[in-house]
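REQUEST ID: PR-0412
SUBMITTED BY: lab tech R.K.
PRIORITY: routine
TASK: structure prediction, single protein chain
INPUT:
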Amino acid sequence: MKKETLGKYPYCLLFIGRINDYRKGLDVLIEAFSKIILKDKCCLIIVGRGDTRPIISLAKRHGVDKNIVIFDWVNEKTLIKLFYISDIYVSPSRLEGYGLTIPEAMACGTPIIATTAGAIPELMKNNKNGILVGPDNVNELVDGINLLLGNSPLLNEMKINNIQSARSFSNWSTVAEKVEKQYHSLLS
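STATUS: complete
OUTPUT:
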């Protein structure tokens, strides 16, 4: 899959997660997406299972339904291509454990906008790998997307940082140590 496949959109955002899971914050992303400056030049790619009708209805209410592409399921090869063609991976979670999509985005060099929910701040550093925003904070999400979209130098710097950071996730013992550290911090 190439970016040209998505038509007239020079910019792409990517969301991966269960569509109907309130904790994933897709509704917050749809609202934020409707408020970004470059929304007419941007598409939102959604990859996830679930009933798409509520999300499509929400997107229609916000006037961005024509800018959204939804994939129910994709194989690993297609998922990697989606990371590569996306300008930003967005994880607007209200609640998150150890999200595997963050290290996957890093490995593909995709800049990230994610919330400070759960272990996400342990996985990425604000203004290095992307931007951290508060859960449920539409305005911060809009500001983060607006800051990154069209800012090629900053996006390129974050791409390089993400590829370097992904090397620290290269084995399961490193991942297990980070998860264990997060659990201990929550128990303290």
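NOTES: DSSP finds eight helices and six strands in the chain.
REVIEWED BY: pending
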